[in-house]
Design brief:
The protein is of the alpha/beta class. Helices cover about 35% and strands about 15% of the residues.
Length: about 425
Amino acid sequence: MSRNESLFAAAREVLPGGVSSPVRAYQSVGGTPLTIRSGKGALVKDADGRTYVDMVCGWGAQILGHADERVVAALRRRAGRGTVFGAPAIEETQLARLILPALPGHDRVRFVNSGTEATMSALRLARAATGRDLIVKFAGCYHGHSDALLSSADSGALTLGTPDSPGVPAAWAATTLTATYNDLESVRALFAAHEDRIAAVIVEPVVGNMGCIPPRDGFLQGLREITRASGALLVIDEVMTGFRVAWGGAQVRFGVQPDLTCLGKVIGGGMPVGAYAGPAQLMDQVAPAGPVYQAGTLSGNPISMVAGIATLRRMRAPDAYAQLEQRAAAIEEVLSSAARAAGVPIRIQRVGAMLTVFFTESDAASSEPICNLEQVTATRLDRFGTWHLALREHGVSWPPSGYEAAFLTLAHDGEVVTRLATAAKAAFEAVAASGA
């Protein structure tokens, strides 16, 4: 038995399914999850001592690379002075002053501990500010595991949501309406039926939880127009995209200004973090400035703050996003070339330093953009497991689900791209040989 296998067996005795987050269990791809012992730059090492090119990168939280010396030094300095006090920290203000100028129209930010907390708190604020109860989300978008957002569309397009998980009260799920991503008409239909009850639309500006799905031209701007006309708020969930696809995130890249922004991942430099931000007239309704309650013992803790400060200071440099784009384009090209050489039809969708390889039925299908959940489920997801296993065997750790985006960092340099190219060649050849 390998060390990975023995560690996973031990974990299953004390952790539900052996993990602390479901996708880590590798159930959709088979095999034993990699227990990662260490990482440096773009590489990670597992419990058996094998080294992998990392394309998970903390599900997007890492953007400089593992154990970046600036982040490590900041953590050491801060940890030596204490880690949490349950009191205001200087570092909260410092990180806020890095974030807010990058978000047009945003004056205040409240730090929390996860993306789930950020979206849950932002929607509470939206309901309080509008005096309305309903939220519009999109099929395939993920905004954390709070009860109101674990819902799916009911049998009719205009009906209220139904629970997506046992334990979610039907009454909570019924406060959420589900539209189709990249389809403004589906949103307009919901507003026509429920306009005076809709508090907010929440959206991933680039979807990452059904694969990388960019917004169609005008989609985000259309949401802005619909919400503004109805008195609802537009909440952009940039937990994944914030400071990853551009300085300031997707809202800057695509030119749309939301009422509230949710952040996480990159702004914590690999430490637990979340945040929600907006203009003063909204954010000053949050306690203690206003009546909308939200609190957290570890919110704004100095450890997460200094890691975020070190990360954003590096990403603020003039060369950072140009380098990231160059390296992401190189990875996209080696994946495309390997698939063509093996005769495996795919479509790669990429926005900045996040991307997904979709297996398609034909080369003709590969030329068409994949825009929503229905189109994702029509791809050849049955080929993903073979491809993922082959990548793993050849030294690449890819997200263990065909519904997840892959990520890269500034540390994914030319040598790493070469290693990835070798593994991709073998992986696409394995798919071709499988006859699937």
